[in-house]
Amino acid sequence: MDQPSKSKSLSLNEILDEIARQDVGLLEDIETALAEVARMVWATHKKGSVALTISLEHTGRGVAVSAVVIGRPPKYAPVSTTFFVGQDGALQREDESQMDLVSYIQDQNTDRSRSRSRT
Q1: How far apart are the first and last CA of the chain?
Q2: Is the dihedral of CA 38, 43, 45, 48 positive or negative?
Q3: Radius of gyration of the chain (CA)
């Protein structure tokens, strides 16, 4: 296996700067992912993350280095609502087995009005 020369090693910052020069959208992708995930974390009060994956591939004389940004926002909990099952199995908003309170009150008021008008 061939060993790299004794030249100065690059720091992570220098490597990322060089990648960003080649991939001008990398820093924008990081900023966008951070903003989107931060917004979702704030809204859900759940954990999210932004991952920067640095890939290396042997090219024969050196190593090709690339980077990909992946935002992992938190997931919202599924929202549910209650429906009632009618006698025919269809979903409906009102429970057939319960009395309609509004109609009951209206009927009571109508009965009182009739009683008053007779006297």
Answers
A1: 111
A2: negative
A3: 33
pLDDT tens across 14-59, in order? Answer: 998 999 888 888 999 999 999 999 999 999 999 999 999 999 999 9
Is residue 18 helix, strand or coil?
Answer: helix
CA distances to 82, 83, 106 from 95, in Å: 10, 8, 19
Q: How confident is the model at residue 119 (pLDDT cuts 50, 70, 90)?
A: low
d(CA 38, CA 45) in angstroms, rounded, equals: 10
Contacts 24+ apart (CB under 8 A), 95-98: none
- DSSP result, 41-88: HHHH----EEEEEEEEEE-SSSEEEEEEEEEEPPPPPPP----EE-TT
Q: 9: Cβ–Cβ under 8 A, 6 or more apart, which residues?
A: none
